[in-house]
Sequence to fold (271 residues):
Amino acid sequence: MKNILTSPFVEEMKKTTANMYRLGWDERNGGNISYMLDENEVAQYLDTGKVIRHIPIGFDATALIGKIFIVTGTGKYFKNVESDPENNLGIIRIADDGTTAELLWGYADGGRFTSELPAHLMSHIARLSVDPENRVVIHTHPTNTLAMNYVHELDDKKFTHTLWGMCTECIVVFPDGIGVLPWMLCGTNEIGEATANKMKEYRLVVWGMHGIYGSGKTMDETFGLIETVEKAAQIYMLTAHLPRINTIKDSEMKQLAEFFKVDYRKDFLNL
Fold:
């Protein structure tokens, strides 16, 4: 059996968490990632019949029974994942009862998955109903995106429209827009349910005064979505207090979307 520490999914988690920490998006134990894995690939590195222990999930994830995820641990710092993945990450399978996770690897110090796992799994369920290839959910605290929450209306259309206008690439990268939630108590099923409802329409959901959720088919796609939002938010924060001389017009955003043949939210433009 191959060494799991050399597996592509562990390597991806190591590189992504290190990069996000370096960017300052995930201070202390902030942020979490869940990545749905292919069972056949996992079986090359683990005996999937050997369950280390069972951990209650905290909600009914029946729709994901049998699915395997690699998930960052609760209370764990992203900066430590690269050097000590076995303590800071875990591989879990949703058990047949739908409410329990079977630990297959990781959390070696007796830990468990992030407290936001219910929100992640609800988002996976929502996104899989739209895109059966969705595999990744990332929650993080990008600095400028978070700062923008305090000075901009928290409205799906208005928030999206502003960000689309900050970088030429934005309407092409996230043409489906961004869902926005007001401040809500984190770590609860309520915020998970609200996020999942938004995820039926969007791959990106802002948690007001907290951070952002992104989802996608691959780690690169998901990270790239959040990275593009953060760049646009940075430009907004650098220019919001200055006189606006130039802007990307709505007609030009439409031209971009149609040229690159993306299915964009036409109702989010003012034409």
User: Anything to note?
Assistant: The radius of gyration is 19 Å.
